[in-house]
Write a structure and sequence with these properties.
By secondary structure, the protein is of the alpha+beta class. It is built from 9 helices and 15 strands. Helix 6 runs parallel beside helix 7 and helix 6 crosses helix 8.
Amino acid sequence: MRSGAENAAFALNGCTLSGATVTVILYFNLSDPQFFSNPAYQSLGQHIGNDHHVMDPNHFQPWGVAPVPPMASVAPTQSTFSLQPPTLTLPNYNLGSGFGSMFQSFLGGAQPFQSVQPVVQPSQQAAVPPPGPHQPSSSQASDTLSQYTVPWVQPATPAGEDDQPQCSICLCDLGDNSSYSADSSYAPVLSLNSCVHSFHSACLTALISNSPSPFLQCPTCKKVYGIRTGTRPSTGSMSHRLLQSSLPGHTDCGTIELHFQFTPGIQGPEHPSPGHYYTPVGFPRTAFLPDNQEGQKALHGLYLAWEQRLLFTVGRSITTGQDNCVTWNDIHLKTKVTGGEHSYPDDQYLGNLAQDLAGFGITEAEISSHMGRHPDLRDKGRM
């Protein structure tokens, strides 16, 4: 399920502030080496959870901008400059009037100031790269909605109750006519045809358009519709071998030892720094599974995750703090036989791994189908 921060990043990324495009990304403080030694970084998020705090737009200072020096005294004949809150323009997500009123409440009721706008230097404006080939086209998004959604049927509201169901993407009421595009070829509100959770059609379109592939993952229950693909670099290989030795907690069977290898390469448009090199730090890497029925199912699930580019990605290494590295991608593997956090014995591991895979759309049915297509995978040692 999306956190509040993820919802905010999704809604605000790409909006324009006084003519400058705003880029919003999530910040993970504990993975930032500078956080523990830089007081400015430690002050980030200090008002989270403080409902009584109201931002004063007249004293707002953007992150990373040097403080403005005190103004010299001006002659009585000169008019003084009063900084007013800038005009905020959201991207064309059709999020409705309620979304704008939410930001209006954050500004303490202040009205957007039209005649004086803060000057944004060209060097401060965020460069917006053109959409890469990894981004779904509008026709692909349309096909995904056609295949996996049905028009929403509004439930009857009991007498005396005014609460309306909300869209968990934009947080507006599903019955709010201003929260979807009037010229959409779809119903204003759509329900996913399996989990039946409902959202504005415009919000679902924006969600698909911001995904690396034309799949749809329910923001409420995380069920995946379509085939989810990730951003694993293309210069890697995956293989495995069978060992006679047993893992702690699985003494009745042998061991499957997985091998992952990458060579340096250049990031594509789906990566954080397109055109820059990425570095495989700490490779080759190994992981271990028990060579029993459940372990062999997990083996096929991991090969599916590899084929769909889900096992690894490019980003900041939590271990070294270095950017542009090949990193794990939230599918947890046991990288040690014994000793340490990521090792055996762990009675819950194979169940937890199945949940990790299901969260990426690799279900038990998909794994069974893969086992039927590749019955000799265990003995071959690679795809």
